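mind reviewing this stuff:

——
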Amino acid sequence: MVADTPHMARVHVDSWRQTYRGLMSDSVLDDPELLPARERFWTGVLTDERHSSNRVAVAEVDGAVIGIAMSGPSQDPDATWGWQLFLLYVDAAHHGSGAGAALLNTVLHAHEAAAVWVADPNPRAQAFYGKHGFTPDGHSKAGPDVRERRFVRGPGTA
């Protein structure tokens, strides 16, 4: 799967640009180093032992990567759940195709309680996670690039 890192990085960057324009700084989204940085990120995720417990999946159509997802053990200090969805992106041309749900179900199992931080506002993503049993828990955070709300799901609610 390491051979897929350039394609995974491309989906990651394109999805950020499609989704976060107006929420995230143009200087971040248009940075010429964004794509190489995401390639290094994905290479590290797929090769570094520190990420060995993470689950990574790609969605493909006709051999082309159109979606990516990654989950792993929760990193939230107040977590009462075991897993966290770190990212799930599907190219906008494939929204509504079922690729997002397939990715979600591949990296998070229905019996696992989990959380995900979702850009706010991002009504499309928030509706997607709501459809899959996640509800906002009232926690939010504002990073240097985007504000996020946390959504959680209990076991068996997928």
User: Anything to note?
Assistant: Strands lie at 55-61, 64-73, 83-90, 114-119, 135-142, 147-153. The mean pLDDT is 95. The helical segments are 5-20, 26-29, 34-47, 99-107, 123-131. The chain has one domain: 2-153.
